[in-house]
Write a structure and sequence with these properties.
Oligomer: heterodimer
Number of helices of chain A: 0
Shape of chain B: globular
Structural class of chain B: mainly beta
Largest interface: A-B, 26 and 25 residues
Structural class of chain A: mainly beta
Helix content of chain B: under 10%
Low-confidence stretches of chain B: none
Distance between the termini of chain B: 36 Å
Number of helices of chain B: 0
Mean pLDDT of chain B: 92
Low-confidence stretches of chain A: none
Largest sheet of chain A: 6 strands, mixed
Amino acid sequence: QKEVEQDPGPLSVPEGAIVSLNCTYSNSAFQYFMWYRQYSRKGPELLMYTYSSGNKEDGRFTAQVDKSSKYISLFIRDSQPSDSATYLCAMSANDYKLSFGAGTTVTVRA
Amino acid sequence: SAVISQKPSRDICQRGTSLTIQCQVDSQVTMMFWYRQQPGQSLTLIATANQGSEATYESGFVIDKFPISRPNLTFSTLTVSNMSPEDSSIYLCSVVGGMVGETQYFGPGTRLLVL
């Protein structure tokens, strides 16, 4: 069993829809949770970072963490074609080392 | 956030040769890491580049294959030695600025194709 499970998709939605992404994990030592966006042929770009259970909002992006269920989510509201990318969840314990999910490829259709 | 550059951005190499990838950061950082992203896969941590001491390798990665240097707080190199086609990947460096849990930023990556 992988430490971090993420459905690779692909996920295709119409412009303006809500995109819902999620990851589950097995390591209860994970305390820090991140979402990265990766465009084709680019390095991962940090989108959201959180270290506690609950919701964190930043513009059109909302990250949710449920440590009791070992489940994290990312929601993108009012999705735009420019949101088309691969979204990677990542998490770490107290050692900075990141464990990544497989990444979900998202296409937002104009 | 830190600005990270990598050289080369891409390369095509012959099997049996070695390639050294450079990672330069525009400010001093506490931690530097090297990751590999194989085609269609997610990122896998290769090692932690320790300033002034030997790198710390993850399971499945060894120093003879991936020697790493970190001479100061803004620069690191990763060498991919005795390459085979299975080493074709994107290699990325990442940095952490300070305290535990501080956000981690990635360089643009080096695309390596081994023939």
